[in-house]
C-alpha cells in the first residue's frame, strides 16, 4: 500500500514538473495531503474548521510543538522572525508559494503557462489571487532580503482583503510602514528592504515547500506567535487543540491547588493519585467557561491516558 502511494506521488510530481503547472491539480493536492479525510476546498486543500482555528490561538507553541513531536513530526517549527505585530497571534490555512533564483528558460515557461491559464499581472501576485478567507500566504523565497521583497503595501492590502490574515515569508517585504497601516494584517518575515523584487521567479503555488527547518504542505494549519511558527498537518488539528486545552485545564487545576496548599509540587508534578484525579474531575464540574464542548470533553476523557 505504501509503495502504491509513493508511486502515485512520484507520478504526480513528474506530471507537475513536466507540464510546468503553476498549481497542482486538486487530485494531486489530495495525494499530497492523503491523511486528511474531511471536507476539502475546490483546489484540493483540507478545509479545516474555522472554530478550531479560533481555539488554536490559545494554544502555546510549546504545546503544539510537543504534540507533533510525539506524533513523529519533528520538523514543523521555525523561529527567529521579524514580526510586524509581535503581540498578536495568527492562525489559518496554508497556501504555499515556491520562489527560486531566476532562470530565464524556466521562468518563460511558467509565465507562458500562467498566461494560458488566464493569470493576470506579475507572477508574485498569482498566489494572492487564489487566497480565500482564513488562508495564510506562506512563501519560500530562500531567505533573499535585498531584491527579494515579495510584497509592499499594495499587495498587502490585496492579501488582507481576500484572506483577512497575513503572510509568512522566508524572505523579505518592502513598505513596512504601509503594511503596518493595514488593520488586522500581520507578517512573519526574515527581513525588510526598500528594493524591488529582482532576479527571482515563481516556481509553483500549493506545492510542498521548506520554511527554514520546517516542511510545509498546502492546507497545513499555521500557529504563528512572536516566539515562532508551528505548521500543523491538517489531520492533527482537532486532536492537537483538544489535547492542548485539556493540558491547560489540568495546569489551571494544579496551579490553583498549589496556591491553596492542598497538594505539594511533588504530588502535582508526578503521576496523579486516584484521589487527585477524582478532585480534578470534581473541579472540572465547577468550571463554567470550558474551551471545549461538554461532549468533546466527555469523549476525550474516555480515551485519556493519565
From TrEMBL:
Keywords per UniProt: Magnesium, Metal-binding, Methyltransferase, Signal, Transferase
Q: Provide the GO MF annotations for this entry.
A: metal ion binding; methyltransferase activity
Question: Which biological processes are named by the entry's GO terms?
Answer: methylation
Q: List ligand-binding residues for substrate.
A: 152-155, 174
Q: Tell whether Transferase is among the UniProt keywords.
A: yes
Which amino acid positions bind Mg(2+), per UniProt? Answer: 175
Gene3D superfamilies tied to this protein = Ribonuclease E inhibitor RraA/RraA-like
Signal peptide bounds: 1-19
Query: Which branch of life, at top level?
Result: Bacteria
Which cofactors does the annotated protein need, by name? Answer: Mg(2+)
Is the keyword Transferase in the record? yes
Cite the SUPFAM superfamilies for this sequence.
Answer: RraA-like
Q: What is this protein called?
A: Demethylmenaquinone methyltransferase
